[in-house]
Amino acid sequence: MHGWFQKILKSGKTKSTQHDRSKDGEDPVVSISSVSALSSSTSPSVRTDRFKPQQSNVALSSELRWRRKYDVFVCHSSALTDIEEATRLVLFLEEAPRSLRCFLWQRDTCPGGAVFTEFCQAVRESHIQALLITPSFVQDDWCNYMMHQALSEGPMSNRMIPVLQNLPHAQYPQELKFYYYIDLSKYPDQGFSMVNKTVHRLLENLVQNEMKLSCISAGLSCGLAGGGGTQEGKVVSEHDS
């Protein structure tokens, strides 16, 4: 009788142990399946974003971008504070991974060269013109001339970025009243980043517009070729009849 009770107790312990082991084994399975379900619902978008080519990278590597020598022409006055601010902006834009090509007159003009000629050429060879507008800029006749030169190259073409620094609203140039501007006085930390994003977005728009024009021209060429072939066949059939 005593042996019979021992067998029952042993069998009960064995079943309870197996049950606990099965529970312990099921928990990782449940957690793995829940994690896999969660990852299947969220990870595809993450993987897609990770391996999706960024538009800015496409714009930077585009052949259209390299048709011009500079990405940004930075125009500023000869005041020491303006030179320092423009230099900081250019160094920020040129640093990787932004890697923009900038024209800064006190750095990129040739000694002994004609400043007027080099400035006008740099404007023509730049995709975008960034104007560092300060009280000194407004009072500088040369800066005003360069602003009008930039406007004449592409009026209302979204190729100009007014960047304000400590400028009262009453002194803002009327020629630029239709342009959105970036106020470094209000956004001292984010201002340079906003300039960088604006430049990249404009470069992306240039690439997209070029692609649209290429598709349109290709479609017109195909249409003209198809129409010419049909007309030629019609003339030949009429001649044969």
Automatic annotation (TrEMBL):
<dbReference type="GO" id="GO:0035663">
    <property type="term" value="F:Toll-like receptor 2 binding"/>
</dbReference>
<dbReference type="GO" id="GO:0005737">
    <property type="term" value="C:cytoplasm"/>
</dbReference>
<dbReference type="InterPro" id="IPR035897">
    <property type="entry name" value="Toll_tir_struct_dom_sf"/>
</dbReference>
<dbReference type="GO" id="GO:0043123">
    <property type="term" value="P:positive regulation of canonical NF-kappaB signal transduction"/>
</dbReference>
<dbReference type="Pfam" id="PF13676">
    <property type="entry name" value="TIR_2"/>
</dbReference>
<dbReference type="GO" id="GO:0005886">
    <property type="term" value="C:plasma membrane"/>
</dbReference>
<feature type="compositionally biased region" description="Basic and acidic residues">
    <location>
        <begin position="17"/>
        <end position="26"/>
    </location>
</feature>
<dbReference type="InterPro" id="IPR000157">
    <property type="entry name" value="TIR_dom"/>
</dbReference>
<feature type="domain" description="TIR">
    <location>
        <begin position="68"/>
        <end position="206"/>
    </location>
</feature>
<feature type="region of interest" description="Disordered">
    <location>
        <begin position="1"/>
        <end position="29"/>
    </location>
</feature>
<dbReference type="InterPro" id="IPR017279">
    <property type="entry name" value="Tol-interleuk_rcpt_adapt_Tirap"/>
</dbReference>
<protein>
    <submittedName>
        <fullName>Toll-interleukin 1 receptor (TIR) domain containing adaptor protein</fullName>
    </submittedName>
</protein>
<dbReference type="GO" id="GO:0032760">
    <property type="term" value="P:positive regulation of tumor necrosis factor production"/>
</dbReference>
<dbReference type="GO" id="GO:0035662">
    <property type="term" value="F:Toll-like receptor 4 binding"/>
</dbReference>
<dbReference type="GO" id="GO:2000343">
    <property type="term" value="P:positive regulation of chemokine (C-X-C motif) ligand 2 production"/>
</dbReference>
<dbReference type="GO" id="GO:0034142">
    <property type="term" value="P:toll-like receptor 4 signaling pathway"/>
</dbReference>
